[in-house]
Design brief:
Chain B: Keywords: Transferase. The complex is a heterodimer of chains A (159) and B (189). Chain A is α/β, with parallel strands linked by helices and 159 residues long. Chain A is built from six helices and five strands. Classes of the chains: A alpha/beta (159), B alpha/beta (189).
């Protein structure tokens, strides 16, 4: 069989629906025997946030950011039809009906399939996110980490 | 076409994309090469997905049967060495020669692929005996017949032809390459 192909996804968005698309593609590509990496940057980092309230040492601005951003994938808003929180409730209901996997499960599945979840450290600093606030077993890197994977990637997406 | 035989069954009914593929990939790791996996799914996209996935990963997509909103996909796991040409039985014919034989003479075509492969397309009137069952079912064949053994690429039929000649069959020919490039008439079950 040919050498393993690579799929790289840059997840910039912090929306539930866009993140779901990213993780569905990632899981599909992993089933295709691709080496898959998801680079989480800016609002995409929120998908990796733990749900529990942690209080690492932070500056005032960092605390503000921390309060305004969703804690974890399940709390993320929709890119359309947010309706003050009604939208995500509705879509989760519909997803359940159609047996679509909820986002937190897709993230678990990604880990199970050895997909590399990578957090961009530069934007972590900007948004004041600390390592202890993010999921365990993820990797950290910068733009070079993406380029290294991306230059021979069969699929490169920016979501 | 409800009773096509499969060695393993994976129930992916009710699951949405990408789960049927993710599950299939996991399941196929537990299966012996050459065996047939039946994936039952209700996701309408799973047919195109499974076909593309199988082709990419080297497995053989046999076909899909649809009934009562359930898609039943048949996939045969790739087995090592099967893609390489390893045909040593010296009585052999190519596809075109077999086609001419079919037009002119009364000949027996023996298809030694798995029964699911046979079900999704075979030469009309071919007898189906999967290679794994051939030794036990040799008595179903007539030693005096002119027998053309066919599989997908010529490997299994090569082994089958050798087995038959050991059992005393003299008029046995291996068809190379076989069904993978067969462009003559085809029947489905």
């Amino acid at each position: 069989m040919a050498e393993k192909k690579k799929t790289n996804i840059i997840l910039f968005s912090g929306d539930y629906d866009k993140t779901m698309a990213a993780y569905i593609i990632a899981n599909g590509a992993a089933a295709y025997d691709h080496d898959v990496t998801i680079f989480h940057t800016f609002w995409g980092l929120n998908a990796l946030r733990k749900n529990e309230k942690l209080q690492p040492k932070k500056s005032f601005m960092e605390k503000m950011f921390g309060k305004m951003m969703p804690r974890g994938a399940d709390n993320m808003p929709l890119s359309k039809m947010q309706f003050l929180g009604m939208g995500p409730k509705m879509i989760k209901g519909v997803m359940k009906k159609h047996n679509a996997m909820p986002l937190p499960d897709l993230i678990d599945m990604a880990k199970e399939q050895d997909i590399t979840l990578l957090a961009c450290t530069m934007t972590m600093d900007l948004l004041g996110l600390k390592k202890e606030e993010l999921l365990d077993d993820i990797e950290y890197g910068g733009v070079a980490a993406y380029i290294a994977e991306g230059e021979d990637g069969a699929i490169n997406l920016f979501i | 076409m409800t009773d096509i035989k499969a060695d393993h069954v994976l129930d992916a009914k009710g699951l949405a994309c990408p789960m049927p593929i993710v599950k299939t990939r996991k399941e196929i790791e537990n299966i012996e090469g050459g065996k047939v996996l039946l994936v039952e799914a209700t996701d309408q996209g799973s047919k195109a997905d499974l076909k593309a996935w199988a082709e990419r990963s080297g497995h053989q997509y046999l076909g899909t049967v649809e009934e009562d909103d359930v898609l039943r996909h048949y996939v045969r796991k790739a087995s090592e060495g099967e893609t390489e040409e390893d045909v040593s039985f010296d009585q052999k014919v190519n596809n075109d020669e077999l086609k001419q034989k079919l037009d002119s003479d009364q000949v027996t075509v023996l298809d030694v692929r798995e029964s699911a492969e046979y079900a999704f397309g075979h030469i009309p009137n071919a007898i189906s005996i999967p290679f794994g069952e051939l030794e036990d079912r040799v008595s179903e064949l007539n030693q005096d017949d002119e027998i053309y053994v066919v599989c997908r690429t010529g490997n299994r039929s090569d082994m089958a032809a050798k087995l038959l000649s050991e059992k005393g069959f003299e008029n046995v020919y291996n068809v190379v390459p076989g069904m993978s490039e067969w462009d003559g008439d085809v029947n489905s079950q």
